[in-house]
User: Fold Probable GTP-binding protein EngB from Shimazuella alba.
Amino acid sequence: MKITQVEFMTSAVLPDQYPTENRPEIALSGRSNVGKSSLINCLVNRKNIARISSKPGKTQTINFFLVNESVVFADVPGYGFAKVSKKIRESWGKMMETYFTKRENLVSVVQIVDLRHPPSKDDQNMYQFLKHYQIPVIVAATKADKLPKSKWHKHLKVVKEVLQMDSSDALILFSAETKMGKEELLAEIQQRIGQSVEE
Assistant:
């Protein structure tokens, strides 16, 4: 999959604000400050289509991007560290739960974790939630450039074990900095889209 075109579509909180066109959708999810915006920008070859914020928790809506006029990327709010009130966190939780459980266009979720650290409790909960609803997951272990190559295998093993990953879900080593894993992740996304179209 080669991305040649990307445009911002809309921001949504409620289902009636979601894009109405029937295109396959890939959601991108991760803990606040895990590097989700950097990963999206890397995938679509743009510097700031997904705004990189120094303040975790800046994304407060689901942001939809049209890719190659045929696929939609949905950037969902980061979970975990955001310094926001409990009330706002709860409303984000409801918004995301509604999206993940009711969105028929959704074919897969790219869950982004930090390769340097074992997945957090929030990461585990997110993965288990997606599996409970039988949503296919692609785990992107990012910030690989911050670790020596000799430690990659060991850290990937930890990610797999802590998340209790399903063997049908892909685990991809990624770095937005060096673009490592970009082609592999796009190929995996393409495969998921292909499967959904066949179904």
